[in-house]
Specification:
The protein is of the alpha+beta class. It contains 14 helices and 20 strands. Mean pLDDT is 81; it is low at 75-80, 82-91 and 96-157.
Length: 476
């Protein structure tokens, strides 16, 4: 069945927040790093550690870029303030940090160097444990995986489009399922950016799709989701801020055009908070659009695991993403829908045909009741029981095949017994039996089609075949 993931996006979502939350849920770090180390790209290192946000211990997934690839995505002054001076200070700090990386690597016992190629970088992969950085609220314990490069020749900034991204993904060490998910996330992101810039999707070559931190975040998220065997994802809403944010193309309103396009295209619900800042990034929105299977939590559920991922931006509302593996209470009341319509000028043949079509289209039950309408006209009341996702197509069939001009729709709760289907062998072939439990008691209900088929094969009456199937099932 797989696991059900609930994402509580009360402070938005970004790619690194998503990966951190999944790692905190228990995604395998070794599997993740194997995939990230296989990315055929340059200029980044990955740190996995712990930080505190508003006093809450969180997992921190950090992609650190070299100067050539840096985009200042987590620099608050650059994003929202007067940034020229801060940008100079940032570059100086970044040079100092890069020198520290090289010193740390020279002192590390384990080093792995690949032979330098012409016009490219020489790769170094290091693994080390750093006990603590800083103190108090900003303290971080770090497990760092370095993917850095010695410069041999000067390079221009890479421009990657969707085709280049697909080629990169094919070379990454991950499962087919993770690869397909990563490609879908990039496709959603590229479609949103293409619409924002009014260009063909093949012409999208800019930061939001091609930047190395986006590639790392999306590959990491896909690998972790696959590793946790996530099959259902519930995201009730995304919380977004207000104001403006500095992007590669200038100062844009929040939500930025790419995020707004994703929200619209994939019917994601959003709540605009009275807080300034960009809380939902294009990468975060694309991940949600690719994986969400529902927006309603079960009325009752148990929490199996909790993961908390930290964001890098410091806003009035702490950037925390909480992810939970949940399990629904199977005995809870579940929702079912009834479609109802009165018909007084439709033939019996037409009503019989519409019943067949409704069952074929997914109706759980269909029945007619005789009623008297206005002016004492005899008529039929059509009742259809169905699931929410089937309402639209079933209503379309009713309008097409009957003379009705209106359909009443009702949401109802129902309580169902725990049930399962079982196949039993009889002297006349196999039969399917529905097993229902009431406490310790088991009730057996052979399926009608199985009983009918055995009657044809054996010559037994319906009751005899029914009892024979039940007896065979009880013998097992």
């Amino acid at each position: 069945m797989g696991n059900t993931l609930y994402l509580e996006c009360a402070a938005g979502i970004s790619g690194d927040m998503m990966v951190a939350a999944l790692l905190d849920l228990g995604a395998d770090k070794d599997v993740l790093m194997k995939a990230l180390n296989s990315i055929p790209a340059k200029g980044f290192l990955v740190e996995i550690g712990r930080v505190k946000k508003a006093g809450i211990d969180c997992c921190d997934f950090r992609v650190i870029l070299d100067e050539q690839h840096e985009n200042h995505d987590h620099d608050m002054e650059y994003l929202h303030g007067h940034f020229e001076k801060q940008l100079e200070e940032h570059h100086e700090e970044h040079h100092h940090h890069c020198r520290e990386w090289q010193t740390d690597q020279q002192q590390t016992d384990y080093q792995h160097k690949e032979e330098a190629q012409p016009n490219c970088h020489n790769h170094k992969h290091n693994h080390k444990e750093v006990q603590q950085e800083g103190q108090g609220e900003n303290s971080r314990s770090v497990h760092a995986h370095f993917h850095t490069h010695e410069h041999i020749h000067t390079h221009t900034h890479e421009h990657r489009g969707i085709q280049e991204i697909r080629q990169i993904l094919k070379q990454c060490s991950m499962t087919k399922n993770a690869g397909n998910l990563a490609e879908r996330i990039f496709q959603i992101l590229a479609e949103a950016e293409a619409k924002a810039h009014n260009v063909l999707i093949e012409q999208v070559h800019f930061h939001e799709v091609g930047a190395i931190d986006s590639i790392v975040d999306i590959v990491a998220a896909a690998v972790c989701l696959d590793n946790l065997e996530i099959h259902q994802v519930i995201v009730p809403k995304l919380c977004e801020g207000t104001g403006t944010v500095r992007c590669q193309h200038g100062i844009l309103p929040v939500p930025v055009p790419a995020v707004a396009n994703i929200l619209k295209a994939h019917a994601l619900k959003v709540e605009i908070m009275n807080v300034q800042g960009e809380f939902v990034t294009p990468t975060g929105a694309a991940i949600v659009a690719a994986i969400r299977t529902g927006d309603r939590l079960p009325k009752e559920f148990s929490i199996k695991e909790i993961g908390i991922g930290a964001g890098k931006r410091n806003y009035e509302r702490p950037s925390i993403l909480r992810a939970m593996l949940i399990e629904a209470n199977l005995k809870e009341k579940e929702l079912i829908y009834k479609l109802e319509s009165n018909v007084d000028d439709c033939t019996g043949e037409a009503l019989g045909y519409v019943m067949e079509r409704l069952f074929e289209a997914g109706a759980r039950d269909v029945h007619y009741m005789p009623v008297f309408m206005k002016k004492n006209r005899p008529a039929w009341q059509l009742n259809v029981i169905c699931k929410k996702e089937d309402i639209q197509k079933l209503e379309q069939i009713i309008f097409q095949e009957t003379t009705t001009i209106g359909i009443r729709r009702m949401e109802m709760e129902r309580t169902v017994l725990e049930r399962e289907l079982e196949t039993v062998c009889t002297p006349y072939g196999q039969a399917v039996v529905k097993k229902c439990r009431i406490g310790q008691q088991i009730r057996l209900y052979p399926e009608y089609d199985s009983v009918k088929e055995i009657c044809k094969q054996s010559g037994l009456s319906f009751q005899e075949a029914y009892e024979m199937i039940v007896a065979r099932c009880r013998e097992r």
